[in-house]
């Protein structure tokens, strides 16, 4: 299985692609895709990177697993393809967006429009077997995405990291908070949101306030 990823990230991550754990991971993923229905489609596994170059990166949002239902996952965390019903977490993300920025809830749950503006929508695990959440965890993806986060932290400055929920907060443990901005809240899933840990975090307006202060173009959420 070949890694199809945009050139800007290939330069940054080239050493990672030759490590034994990553080669084992690729063999596992290739076998899984041959023998099972898996998501996202092979050509979208690295879509988060393809839509947000390393040079243009302004914001990082960390998810956990791709959606495991047919036609949902498109390689960007929390995002679904055009025409697909919004999953519960995305519903709550859009509700907070509506409340925070007084904007109508988007009809499409496809977040490529965010990614194309410099938002890296990074799942910790980039693939999953259909109807089997967590099925591709602990196979090497987490090590790879930890390295991605560490490289962003080391090689860039003034990136806004949005850490939603306990898993994302742990995933962000290596972010240098002296160089970057870290906003934390509960997860947008109904379990967390309905307990009051998500709504009202105002992360969308806070992110744009930060970007504006450091003279970087804001995100049109």
Molecular structure report:
The strands form 2 sheets. This protein has a 4-stranded parallel beta sheet with strand order 3-2-5-6. Strands 1-4 form a two-stranded antiparallel ribbon. The protein has 221 residues and is an alpha/beta fold. It has one domain: Uracil-DNA Glycosylase, subunit E (3-Layer(aba) Sandwich). The protein has 9 helices and 6 strands; from the N terminus they run H-H-E-H-E-H-H-E-E-H-E-H-E-H-H. Helix content is 38%, strand content 11%. The protein has helices at 7-17, 20-35, 47-50, 88-101, 112-115, 141-155, 166-171, 190-193, 203-213, and strands at 38-39, 59-63, 119-123, 128-129, 160-164, 181-185.
The H-and-E topology, N to C, reads as: HHEHEHHEEHEHEHH
CATH domain topology? Uracil-DNA Glycosylase, subunit E
Biggest sheet statistics: 4 strands, parallel
Class computed from helices, strands and strand pairing = alpha/beta
Keywords: Cytoplasm, DNA damage, DNA repair, Hydrolase
Catalytic activity: Hydrolyzes single-stranded DNA or mismatched double-stranded DNA and polynucleotides, releasing free uracil
Protein name: Uracil-DNA glycosylase
Enzyme class: hydrolase
Keywords:
single chain, 221 residues, alpha/beta, Uracil-DNA Glycosylase, subunit E, four-stranded parallel β-sheet, two-stranded antiparallel sheet, 9 helices, 6 strands, globular
What is the compact description of this entry?
The chain is an alpha/beta fold and about 220 residues long. Helix content is about 40%, strand content about 10%. Strand 5 (about 160-165), helix 7 and strand 6 form a beta-alpha-beta unit.
């Amino acid at each position: 299985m070949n890694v199809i990823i945009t050139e800007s990230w290939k330069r940054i991550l080239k050493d990672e692609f030759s490590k034994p754990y990553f080669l084992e991971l690729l063999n596992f993923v290739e076998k899984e895709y041959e023998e099972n229905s898996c998501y996202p489609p092979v050509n979208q596994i690295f879509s988060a990177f393809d839509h947000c170059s390393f040079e243009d990166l302004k914001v990082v949002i960390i998810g956990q697993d791709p959606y495991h239902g047919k036609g949902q996952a498109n390689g960007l965390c929390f995002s679904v393809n055009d025409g697909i019903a919004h999953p519960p977490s995305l519903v709550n993300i859009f509700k907070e967006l509506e409340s925070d920025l007084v904007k109508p809830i988007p009809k499409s749950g496809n977040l490529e429009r965010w990614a194309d503006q410099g938002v890296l929508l990074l799942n910790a695990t980039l693939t999953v077997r259909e109807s089997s959440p967590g099925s591709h965890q602990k196979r090497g993806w987490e090590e790879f995405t930890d390295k991605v986060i560490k490289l962003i932290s080391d090689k860039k400055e003034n990136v806004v990291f949005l850490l939603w929920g306990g898993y994302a907060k742990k995933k962000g443990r290596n972010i240098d908070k002296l160089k970057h901005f870290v906003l934390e809240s509960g997860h947008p899933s109904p379990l967390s949101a309905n307990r009051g840990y998500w709504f009202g975090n105002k992360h969308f307006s806070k992110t744009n306030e930060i970007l504006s202060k450091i003279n970087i173009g804001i995100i049109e959420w």
